[in-house]
Amino acid sequence: MKRVPFLLAFMGVLSAGAVTLGPPGPTQQWGEASIRFSRFEKPEAAALPPKPRWQADPMNLVVVVEAGDHHVSLVDGDRFEVIHRFASRNALHGEMRFTPDGRFVYFGTHDGWVTKYDLWNLTPVAEVRAGLDMRNLALSGDGHWIMAANYVPRTLVLFDADLNLVRSYPAATLDGKTASRVAAVYDATPRHSFIVAMKDIPELWEISYDPKAEPIFDGLVHDYRMGEGLAKPGFLGVRRTLLDEPLEDFFFDQSYRHAVGTTINQGGKPVGAQVVNLDVRRRIADFPLPGIPHLGTGVAFVSKGTVALASSNLQDGALTVVDMKTWKVVKTISTPGPGFFIRSHENSAYAWVGSMPSPIARDAITIIDKRTLEVRAQVREPGRILSHIGFTRDGRYALASMCEMDGALIVYDARTFKELKRLPMSKPISNYNVRMKLSPSEGTTR
User: What digits encode the pLDDT tens for the residues 325-337?
Assistant: First the structure.
């Protein structure tokens, strides 16, 4: 793959003095002019043929981020063979966002770069720098909008599908007096909107990309003296839900009416969880969770006649299961160590839970039976790191990332848990199938 145009574009940004090298400080700026100047588009992108250059099912393609040598591998999800491997930017996030047709994928880096890559033609087609310290990306369900959440500067940045800047939102209170890092942004496809959590202010935002979105009223609608009751456009406007405490991260229920997030106290410490109804725009429940819950990677599933939410824990060796009808903890399942992720598939009876944060159990993945809420099995790579589970389109195979410089993508039968194949890779940190967006029943990408 030719990287010269993208590298030259980046060098142009550096030579123009738009970037300060080194770790970004909280007050560093990266405004709309800098964003526009950083953008590069492949001149012949529009003429690329709308069909894959390779022989495989385009909706069963597995994309693997290899952090060891800054590459990405494309794997045939039927034959488990590498179709193509290409160089990426450094510090690539493990997560990625796919367009509905599976043709394009968006990658983001920790230092703010967003790349649009054509999986069918095996080439990058556009690139832009959204910020200096980026938290994550979200792609709209219709594939028309992409949102970048930044720590530095404290902004949300909206692009169209070709990474043209549409709007930059200051992440701040309505009066502009208090700014915040953006904790997370996720797409809520059934609502035709992005949902945004703020790390430093007690607000949850909803930004609708529905042109028919209802108008937004901020403040007291019965008091027109200061214009507080005047409507703002609902399309791409900020609809704020005011909370008592900020949310560190969050998870949707299956209806997308509720966001369930980790509550952060004034000292920045997790103190439990809260449930926010996105329709009435207020907190409707809260419940205690031990340790440092990681609700951003929660999984929802039907178990014992109810809908359950399972959440991993970054501090304790425990998986917490919550009844999503009563919002009560119904079970705590012991795991070998603290867990960063939990993943499942809608066609699978099992949830796979990693223990990567644990210094002694990071080589284990625990498999939970969603029907009985009991530990069913465990897979291990003694002395190695098993970090992330993905699935093939039909859920028949589970794919584990052995996160080592001499690592591998390990293929398991998702029903028998037997290893079937491994593909050598350089510190793979994530793998995702292009078949569809992850749903609450499968786990988020965080």
Answer: 999 999 999 999 8
